Amino acid sequence: MKPARSKAQQRDETRRLLIDTGRRLFAEQGYHAVGLAEIAAAADLTKGALYHHFGSKAGLFHAVVESVQQEVAIEVAAAADAAPTPWEQFVAGCRAFLTASAAAHRQRIMLVDGPSVLGWHRWRELDEQASAAHLTEALRTLMSDRVIADQPVEPLTRLLSGAMNEAALWLAGSTDQARDLAAVIAALDRLLGSLRNAD
Fold first, then answer.
1. At residue 1, does pLDDT exceed 70?
2. Which residue, of 41, 42, 127, 194, has the greatest Cβ tally within 10 A?
């Protein structure tokens, strides 16, 4: 016999179910094409449950974007941690970000609807928490190790983050993603290589 779930566990499960259901529908149809009733019905819950946990469709979408960005950050960190040196960790993390962002089940949520629905500033805050902070830390390590020239880290972080987000957005419209992802990663490698001090 299964033990009874606590109210907190039930709350967490309902919240997770709504996020997962909303994520699937937002990815398939886009934010504006999905209604609250459709999300609630797909999750086999009431609209009241959705309002209780998220307040609105926009509130649910915010949680979905946050979840997607955290998922990407975990994949980036795992790829970086598997590399042997700080430079290789940096390159592997940047490559992983592009690969993870280009995944079809993330593109519309993270790159297309995210900035327009949440607003640019809120979307950037989430991006900062999930990915840009790791990029800043990696760049500081490389500067400390004299792998790249010492310089103000904030503008460099923004330039690299902006370039990678723009490349990921371009990939979202690709008709041959395998080819274009390979081309983007090759261009990224050249861009990152230009930062490196001569050995």
1. no
2. 127
